[in-house]
TrEMBL record:
Residues 153-382 form the KaiC domain. Residues 15-73 have a biased composition (Acidic residues). One of its GO terms (molecular function) is ATP binding. CDD domains: KaiC-like. It comes from Halogranum amylolyticum. Residues 1-86 are annotated as: Disordered. This is KaiC domain protein, AF_0351 family. Keywords: ATP-binding, Nucleotide-binding. The lineage of its organism: Archaea, Methanobacteriati, Methanobacteriota, Stenosarchaea group, Halobacteria. InterPro entries: Circ_KaiC_arc (IPR022420), KaiC-like_dom (IPR014774), KaiC_dom (IPR010624), P-loop_NTPase (IPR027417).
Amino acid sequence: MADDDWFERALRELDGEERETADEDAGNESDDGEDRPTTDEPDGFDDAGEEFGDLDRDDEESGGPDVDGDSDDESSRRDDTGADDPFVEDFATAFENAPRPSGAESDDELGFGAFGEAGDDGFEFGAFGDDEFGFGGPGDSAFDEEAFESEIERIEIGINGLDEMVLGGVPERSLMTVIGSAGTGKTTFGLQFLEEALANGENAVYITLEESEEAILSTAEEKGWPFRRYAEADRLAVVALDPIEMANSLASIRSDLPRLVEEFGASRLVLDSVSLLEMMYDAPSKRRNEVFDFTRSLKEVGVTTMLTSEASEDSPYASRYGIVEYLTDAVFVLQYVRPSDFRETRLEVEIQKIRDANHSRETKPYEITDEGISVYRQANIF
C-alpha cells in the first residue's frame, strides 16, 4: 500500500548519525539494535506526551527491554544531568541512603534497626520486646510495677487467705466496708482487722453501735485476742455508743474523732455498724448527707478505717441503703451460699473493689472458727 511504501522509504533514509539521533530523541533504540517507529512528539516528551526530559525507563517500568544499556541490578536511574533519580529507587535502597539524625551512626539508632537485635536502637523498638516504652516482652518493661506499688504503703487485713486475694495489701489509710447479712462474721472481721495491728505493736479504736464494751472484749478473748489487755495498756479504745445518741450528736463526734485517734496514736479504726447510723434518718437525702459527711471525716482522720454494714434485703452485694459502697475505697462482701441439694450452707467472700490495688475477682469459701475467719484461697465453693 502507498502508506506502507512511504513508511519503509522513510526508515531506509535514516542512516548514520541521523538515525542514531532520531533513536535517542524518541527513546526507541532497543538492546538488540532493532528499530522501533518514531513518533511526532517533540523532544522532551515521552510516548504519552508527558514531559520527563530524556528519562529512560527500564523493562519493568515500560514493559520492554532495558533501553539505556544499564544492568537490571543497578539500584538507581539517572536523569539527563547524570544525577541519581530518587523516585525510581526501590524502598530498601532509598531507606538505606536516607539522611540520619545528627549523631546517629547506624539504622539501629533510628529505632527501626534489625527487627530483632534487642536493645541496639535509640528508641527501643528494634527487638519486638525489650523496649523502654513497655511494648515489649514480659522481661524488660519500662513500667516498673513493683516501684509503682511501693509508692503507696500497704497493710495486711490479718485474715488468712484473704490477704493473698489482695495482691500486695490494702493501701494504707483506706476507708473500707464489709457488707453481709446477720451471722456472716462482720464483727469478727472487724476485730480480726484490729488484732493484726495490735499484735504488731500498733494502737486502734473500736466504735460499736450494737454491743457493749464488755461484750466486745469478751468476744475478742474467745478468739484468743487479748483485747482487754490492750485496753488496760491504753493501746485500744473501745467506744460503745447508742445509735440515737450518735445521730443526735454526730457533728460533735466527727470533731472528737481526730482527738481520740491522736490520743491513742491509732493506726486503725472500726465502726460496727454504719447501718444502725443510717437507720436513724428517715429522709433519704438527709441520710446520704450525714453518711457522706461522716465518711469524709473518717478519711480526714488519717487512719485505715473499716465499716461494717448490713446487706440489702434485695441483694447480698449491696449495703442496706446502697450508700457506703460508693463512698468507700474497698468493699468486701460476705454471704451465705446454699447449694441446690440443701445439704450444707456455706459462707463465701468476694472482693468487690479496692482502689489503687490489684485483687482477685474470685469468690472463695471461708469459715468462722474459734481463731477467727479463715478463707480457703485454694478451694472453690462447689
